[in-house]
Amino acid sequence: MRKLLCGLIMAIGLMFVQAQADEYRAGQQYKVLKEAVSVEQTDGKIEVDTIFWYGCPHCYDLEKLIPAWKKTLSADVDVVKTPVIFGRPWQPHAQLFYTLEEMGLDETANTAIFEAVQKEGRRLDKPADMADFLNEHFKVNKETFLKTYDSFGVRNQSQKAYAKVRGAQLMGVPALIIDGRYVVDPQSAGGLEEMLKVADALVEKVRREKAPKQKAATAG
């Protein structure tokens, strides 16, 4: 009986998400890109890119909603952070983010930087200041940080992020890109929490679109 009840609840939930997907409209709650931007997933997972900037208060607010939202996602969905680069002033924070990744620093460091910029008013837009901050809070070696910050790998990742943002024709942040094809922002969705609801619906839309192809591949 318990298994039957759980199955029924899951079915109802799926029907609700599908109804939402049909309710939301392209050009209203989300935008469809004419040309898809690149995604990192090659294993069939559905990629959701969260586009952010450490200096954006709305990005900080959305960031606080993401952990709980991620727990509701199925195993076939992967959430990826992508720092925005609209021009040179945004480059340092993008390199900072990819330096954290390259050095294997966990999500705690990313959150600490967000809080330092948004709550403490620290700009952290100069490599030396970044190195001081990370050394102070996470015992990161300053020389290692600066070398990694200026490395080819970090700059290459930053260039990819720039290309993705440019390809998505984003005018502001935060934004979500689902499967490299659908873009959601607070204005079109109606708020930060609504962004995640629209993203849920679009994930289900992508899942339904991919189902026949995956079935055919399995059959083949």
UniProtKB/TrEMBL annotation:
PROSITE patterns: THIOREDOXIN_2
UniProt keyword annotations, A-Z: Disulfide bond, Periplasm, Redox-active center, Signal
Keyword Zinc-finger attributed: no
Location (main, coarse): periplasm
Location in or out of the cell: Periplasm
CDD domains xref list: DsbA_DsbA (cd03019)
Stated family: Belongs to the thioredoxin family. DsbA subfamily.
Cited PANTHER family: THIOL:DISULFIDE INTERCHANGE PROTEIN DSBA
Protein name in UniProt: Thiol:disulfide interchange protein
Species for this entry: Kistimonas scapharcae
Gene: dsbA_2
